[in-house]
Amino acid sequence: MIILGVTGYLQWGRFVNNFQTSYLIRRLISDSSQWRYLTFTALFILEYHTITRPYEPPLLTKLINPLLSLTPHPPLLAFQMLTLARKSAFTLFIALSQLGSLFAPPPTTTATSSTLDMQQLARLEQTAKALDIEASRLLAFDMAPFADDEVGVKELRGKVKDWLVNNTIRADPEVRDAMGRAMGRRRVGAPPGARPG
Length: 197
Prior knowledge:
Blueprint lengths: L1 H6 L15 H8 L1 H21 L5 H11 L9 H26 L9 H30 L7 H22 L1 H14 L11
Helix pairs in contact: 3-5
């Protein structure tokens, strides 16, 4: 998390809010990187403290287990508390990330929509050209064994073309029905149960 935050990939959680919400919520969501680091550090300290001590942590014996004794749930063990703390922290991360977009102001665009459309169209055109070049390269790679044999290339193209046409025609439902009717007429000498109705 620290490496992602330093490189700027964890900035998607930062929000600045101008709406009339409570200061605490705005501050918590706007400083998302800081509370993530704080929670992550607190989890690390809790796990380190729990793992390196031979006794159960006071948080477990004085707060969580007495509260659980009021319910039919059995008391938690140390590893269960750590698992629950991890899951709760990550659930909180996800929840605040999802809620952050509700508190964020709508994005402002500096360019007009027609300019953005033209830019997207240009990018789409470049992508299409790149895919066409890549497809041509792959086809040339597949045809590499026949590079010096013109007769072999013509024969291969002819067979591939015939195969594509035959499979396209045979896959058509109307053609399959017509072939079924034609085959049914041929079976004139078939027993009565095998003839078409």
